[in-house]
Every structure is written in structure tokens, then in C-alpha cells.
Amino acid sequence: MKTVQIPDDLYARAAALAAEDAVSVDRLVAALVNERVSDWERVQIRAGRGSLERLHEVLARVPDVPAEAVDKR
Prior knowledge:
mainly alpha; 3 helices
């Protein structure tokens, strides 16, 4: 096992969540890190299927018009 240092305030938040679920902080943090690492791996796989050329093809089809007022906020 490895030791990871996190800010005290973040640890306190994690400890509160772990207590609510009756699990250890280590188990909670491991589960959350695993979830995010899996998410990141999926993003990398999807990014590998794309191409800059295809992006430019798609963007070329978007009309060049001013943004609507609701989109300017």
C-alpha cells in the first residue's frame, strides 16, 4: 500500500462521508480514486478513436453566426 497526503480540510470531508457510510476513510478514498481513474481511462480510449481532421470536418459544418443572447452570459 502507498501513503497519499491530502489537505486536512479534504480529509475531514472524506472522514465525514466515510462515517455516514460506516466505512473507513481508506476504503472511501480508494473507491473514489478508482472511479475517477476508470473515468479518465474511458476518456483516453474515446479520445484515441477521434482525430483532429474529423474535428475540423465537423466544425466546418457549424454556421458562422453570432451567439444568441442567452449564450453570451
